[in-house]
Design brief:
alpha/beta; five-stranded parallel β-sheet; 11 helices; globular
Amino acid sequence: MLTIHQVAERLRSFDNTLILTHVRPDGDTVGSAAALCAGLRALGKTAYLLPNPELTDATAPYFLPYEAPEGFHPERVISTDIASTSLFPENAKPYVDRVDLAIDHHPSFEGFGKEHYLRPSAAATGEIIYDILAALGPITAEMALPLYVAVSTDCGCFAYSNTTAHTHAVASALLRTGIDFQAVNKTFFRTKSRKRLALEAAMLGGAEYHDHGRVAVLSVPLSLMESVQATESDAEDLSALGGQIQGVDCAVTMRELRPGVWKFSLRTGPRVNATKACALLGGGGHAAAAGCTVEAPFAQAKGQMLEAIAQVVPDFTL
């Protein structure tokens, strides 16, 4: 694995670079990619982000200014915050074997790319990108704003257990550039659409509890999305809801992506290793936040996840 200094040296030699983000892009993959693109351009390099068709209203403003024009042919390819090539959007699949540098913070990172930098202790890939850009030169406000989006969203506005002293130090440095962090906080943490509130009400109303109330299962079937006419922007980060329920240390969110295809998101406390549970179903992530996808009817898919949790939690009971 490369060091931060080596990554910086690689980037100094790169040009005509395309940066990839993952499916269902969150603030970390978008913010990390946008900041890295801004940093490369500050070095006089040509760099773009590969268009991602699943951007939400919240993330799009940070992504679109760097989006690659049609017909751009990169010499170098970088991935940011992508743990597995299975998380490449369809338009990124042609670059699976062309990734020159992969930058990630997931313990489940599969080691793809000609070279990579991995730091599982980082709360967000944005922390890593900050260190890389700091090694390349001054951090400008243009880089700092998407970096703040990356770092703050992946640690729940500094409330999640993955937050470290380094996370706060990075955030402090970003704020010193004069960015409008309050607008970011308002958008991502303090604003919900009426459709979003309707989704949350239905999820909580239909929540199931297992393991003496310590495990909550919340579901978002396609029929619910349709009934409230919710968009992807309304459904962003629904997985954070279950963990707010008192007494719950393992929140399971089931989102139906297509008929009979369920995306699981786990948010857990120290008793439940989310990565180990999701790995049993072909997924991965972090100890406290992980995911996987299961193709099966609702009851069967839910049962598979509960069985996976039971395998990694010795005292689990239905």
